[in-house]
Specification:
405 residues; alpha/beta; FAD/NAD(P)-binding domain; 3 domains; five-stranded parallel beta sheet; 9 helices; 26 strands; 23% helix; 32% strand; binds flavin-adenine dinucleotide; flavoprotein; oxidoreductase; FAD/NAD-bd_sf
Amino acid sequence: MTTSGRIRRTGVLVVGASVSGLNTVEALRRSGFRDRITVVGDEPHLPYDRPPLSKQILSGAWRPERTLLRAPRVLADLNIDLLLGHRALSLDPSTRTVLTTSGPITADAVVIATGATPRALPVPDGTSGVHVLRTLDDSLALRDEFAANPRVVVVGEGVLGAEISATARQSGLDVTMTGPLHAPMAAQLGDLVATQLADLHTRHGVALRLGVGVQRILGENGRVSGVRLENSQILPASVVVVAIGAIPATDWLTDSGLSLDRGVVCDATCRAADGIYAVGDVARWPGNDVNSTVRLENRTHAAEQAAVVAANILGAEDVYRPIPYFWTDQYEVKIQVHGTITPDARATVVDGDPAQGRFLVRYEREGVPTAVLGWNMPKQARMQRRILVDAQSAPGPALTSAHSS
Ligand SMILES: Cc1cc2nc3c(=O)[nH]c(=O)nc-3n(C[C@H](O)[C@H](O)[C@H](O)COP(=O)(O)OP(=O)(O)OC[C@H]3O[C@@H](n4cnc5c(N)ncnc54)[C@H](O)[C@@H]3O)c2cc1C
């Protein structure tokens, strides 16, 4: 394994040294691929996992080393050229050449695994104390800020905003969560469960200022001082976290001629062009409904799609049809979702009881099960997954046809 140097030719070039890139490499090696593999990643760290960044790293419960996806020895055994701290600048699909900050690299196959970058809000010039959370460095910087600044406003009521609010509150901070929807994660979980989540946050002492957008971030003497909402209310803050979604990292592909539409557009086999594949948060591929496309941002998808991409690089023509899965941990609650929850889905509690803090929800669209959610019921949720597999193989509304970003 090398961490620097100029490489001109490789068998497979993976751009993005994170979970989807690393899983692609491992699947290739497991399948007996012996040729050279090069991985280019713009972060300085060995590949690490992001879910703990809004939980155990932000709270200080874990040291950063614990997020490593693989031990250095395991990485070394993969026998890859790992170019960390180097950025891909452009791609020429006709020759499969990627210009990187360590020089041009030509490959038999290129894997685009560059993930996504956080959306930002305008901040008054020279104002400190406004953060986003995507990288390990982001999480460590925010943790330091939390230690010195007890009044937090989290802008964004999605999964990341809800997790950050929970972690900040458990660290004893004064937390306000704000966003345009009426309840945390209403877009991802639907009303029934989002209402439970709103109660959970309220019980733990988070102030919810929801159902209203942010007008602007305010600063005073070079430091953030609050957030003004569209209804003119001002939420005072000594630190603001902006968690309003992420944009697929395709900036380096603008002149490539690849089809870019809120992600790298692929066919059902995850191929974006001859010998070029996309995987993980950056990839968009056809959904099961005609004319729909899907892009998923979750940890399990990144690993599952990587297996399909590796197989297809080696000559398979496997179609990627996942049953999406994601989880979130907030306070004492683990929520797990198998399938896709659409706004028009009918939600029914089929086991447990929300009042007891353990329940299972089944979602249906046009009578077809589309998702199962477990609230502190992991085993039961996993067992119900079978009905989604059966529904996926039957004709009718599909599990990954909607809820794409
Ligand atoms: C804070 C946080 C918490 C999360 N929690 C959960 C959770 O609880 N459950 C869950 O299911 N999912 C969770 N996720 C989502 C999950 O982590 C992502 O879906 C997953 O990381 C996607 O992996 P990826 O490899 O596609 O992209 P990424 O992990 O984003 O990796 C892409 C890599 O490519 C690099 N890169 C970008 N552009 C270039 C370039 N031009 N050249 C070189 N390198 C480049 C990036 O710096 C990055 O290192 C969380 C995400 C975050 C940010």
